[in-house]
Write a structure and sequence with these properties.
The structure is a homodimer. In chain A, about 80% of the residues lie in helices and about 0% in strands. The first copy, chain A, is an all-alpha fold. Chain A has a single domain, classed as Methane Monooxygenase Hydroxylase, Chain G, domain 1 (Up-down Bundle), CATH 1.20.58.220. The first copy, chain A, is elongated, with a radius of gyration of 19 Å. In chain A, about 40% of the residues are buried.
């Protein structure tokens, strides 16, 4: 294996590892909300520091790979996609931190019994995140397409959650109910953004593999 | 001037033009909220299509510049920063569209009299956006630093807006007041994100000019 190819394999591995850290952050931060476990949040903040460092290292690696090897075609597409995916992963970590912080705020109040469809949304979004990384790791554009198709379902669930929570807010004069409903809305919004980042990654995978930019409804259907 | 330098100047001009479109989108979308003018929204959607196309063209230009010229050092940093700024600009356009859509929703209800500190936040954020582009155009890292320093003030105003709107929601049993207050909260949240994108651009400018990655509190103070 050429030295360059080894470095490219190394870069891919680094991103997959980073993605696994981000997935952990998402899982734990949702547990902070659902299981109401304050202790867990420390882990999220610790992993965030690691992910932030990874982001800088990956970008630096990509720049050096370009400068020293002057890649073209699919190699160059791989490296620039890696830079973009790197940025999406870091922002996914930020969303997880936000979810975690909202979870901590919710701990100050008694539990708002039903979490509405949030657990359903969590399942769908974490699946999208997992599969988007998998599609990158395996250069599997069919899987990437499958993830893109799930985006509408996420929007739909979010709309339902918003409608239900709005009813809660309207039917109460209790201050804490309003605060808690708001926090759950923001959580749903962040889950939606996690799904958006997963679709960004899938669009990058498709571009990386076949050189076709499918953003902004250039999607093949 | 070498052909490569001409193309680099062209790329910079393209991004500055794209940024000016995005600034227009932001200004108009805020007018939809503040002046309650439905007609204006059409313009936002029209400019969005242009910005989306620009994003694809800029990325393509950047890839070709790398592949055909094998730049290193500051040239390479300029091109990869351009790709990142490109992505931030497109996402800023998305936020403007979201603000515009919220504005359209608000038109369905009578005006919630005071817009709280939202106009103040608008002034600060549009200033950050304008200066971030200017710092890119002039490679002015001092200006970039100045923008970064404004981020805390934005967070502070957002917190005040949230607190004030929350009071509205708690003191009312009127459905539409809750809906309108929520919409204004989401607008404030989006303004905050516009400020975040402006800081991303400034971090890129600093990296582009002096090669120092200042993300994640690597900021010199």
């Amino acid at each position: 294996m050429r030295h360059f190819d080894m470095e490219m394999t190394e870069l891919k591995k680094k991103l997959v590892d980073m993605a696994s850290l981000v997935q952990q952050m998402i899982t734990i931060s949702i547990d902070v909300v659902v299981k109401r476990d304050k202790e867990l949040s420390k882990e999220v903040f610790a992993i965030e520091r690691e992910v932030n460092l990874d982001e800088i290292v990956v970008d630096d690696t990509c720049l050096k790979l370009i400068a020293l090897n002057q890649p073209v075609g699919s190699d160059l597409r791989f490296i620039t996609s890696a830079m973009r995916i790197n940025s999406d992963l870091e922002r996914m970590g930020d969303e997880a931190v936000n979810i975690c912080e909202t979870g901590l705020e919710l701990l100050e109040y008694p539990e708002l019994k039903p979490l509405i469809d949030i657990p359903k949304m969590v399942i769908l979004v974490t699946e999208m995140v997992k599969e988007s990384i998998e599609s990158f790791n395996l250069s599997d554009i069919e899987l990437a397409q499958k993830v893109l198709e799930k985006d509408d379902a996420v929007d739909e669930i979010k709309r339902t959650i918003f409608k239900d929570l709005m009813e809660y807010m309207i039917c109460t004069s209790d201050r804490t109910t309003i605060v808690r409903a708001m926090d759950l809305m923001f959580t749903a919004k962040r889950l939606e953004r996690l799904g958006d980042h997963a679709t960004n990654i899938c669009e990058d995978v498709i571009f990386m593999v076949n050189g076709k930019d499918i953003r902004h409804n250039n999607r093949p259907n």
